[in-house]
Structure formats: structure tokens, C-alpha cells
Design brief:
The protein is of the alpha+beta class. It has a five-stranded mixed beta sheet. β2 and β3 form a beta hairpin. The chain is globular. About 3% of the residues have low confidence.
């Protein structure tokens, strides 16, 4: 007899995109498992201009990430600013519990007023209706430069 696996990957990823566009960190975090395999393509020591670009491991960390990310930018919530986070060219590929989201982030750094664009891909895994893996592959150097005075 099948067990309740929760919503499918496509439904969870679609809801994730909607919640990111709405800009509510706590609602975004509700879609994540209590413990998350979170990886960023960035040196472990990070960068002082982009403290939100670091590894996370819990649902609370996920909410903190999206709060820090929002505070670091001057944009209105994405739905009011033409979806700068979700991006106009968002593509989603789903294969069973795995999904890859590819887009271009369009934001403005609050610390410098510098607008930037950065290509980004997310690899997520959905288990029991929650995101358990969140691997980010982005142009973090472009992001760091935009947030660095004189960058």
C-alpha cells in the first residue's frame, strides 16, 4: 500500500516560486524540511559584502537566508518589481523528486545602489512534500562585486 508522499515535486517547486515572488521568508521556509542539505557554490569563508551567501542546515536558517537576502537589496518585493528574483526566463525541469530551476537574478544592492544580473541554477530535491536539498549555483562573484563599494 503506498504511503502519503505529500505534494509532488512540480507542485512544491511551483509553490516555492510563488512564495519567493511574494517575499515572505517564513512562508518560504515552511516548504523546507527541518534539516536541509544546503550548498552554495562559494568559498566556505564567504565574503564580507554578502554574508547571506553561506551554507545553511535548518528550516530556521532558510527563513534567515531569505530575510538577509531581502535586507541586502533595495528592490520592492519581486511581484511589484517584475520578478527580479524569479526572473523573466525561469525554466523548471522536474524528474521524479529532483528539480532544476534556471533563471537570471535581477537585483539592486542596498549597500552600493549597484544594479546587477546574475545567472542562477537551483537543484532541489523534494521528499514527503518538503524541499530537503537546495543547491545553489550562481554567479556569486557578480553578486559580491555589486555589494562591494568600489567593486
Amino acid at each position: 500500500m503506498p504511503t502519503d508522499l505529500g505534494p509532488g515535486t512540480d507542485a512544491v517547486v511551483g509553490e516555492f516560486v510563488r512564495r519567493v515572488a511574494s517575499g515572505d521568508p517564513d512562508r518560504i521556509a515552511e516548504l523546507f524540511a527541518e534539516h536541509v542539505d544546503w550548498v552554495l557554490d562559494w568559498p566556505a569563508e564567504g565574503h564580507p559584502s554578502t554574508p547571506w551567501i553561506r551554507s545553511r542546515s535548518t528550516r530556521a536558517d532558510v527563513a534567515a537566508h531569505f530575510r538577509e537576502l531581502a535586507a541586502a537589496h533595495t528592490d520592492e518585493p519581486p511581484e511589484q518589481a517584475g520578478d527580479p528574483v524569479v526572473g523573466p526566463g525561469l525554466r523548471i525541469l522536474v524528474d521524479g523528486p529532483e528539480a532544476v530551476l534556471s533563471t537570471e537574478i535581477r537585483r539592486t544592492a542596498a549597500s552600493t545602489g549597484t544594479p546587477y544580473r546574475a545567472r542562477c541554477a537551483l537543484h532541489v530535491t523534494v521528499e514527503a512534500g518538503l524541499i530537503s536539498r537546495y543547491h545553489v549555483y550562481e554567479d556569486s562573484l557578480t553578486v559580491a562585486r555589486a555589494h562591494t563599494v568600489g567593486g
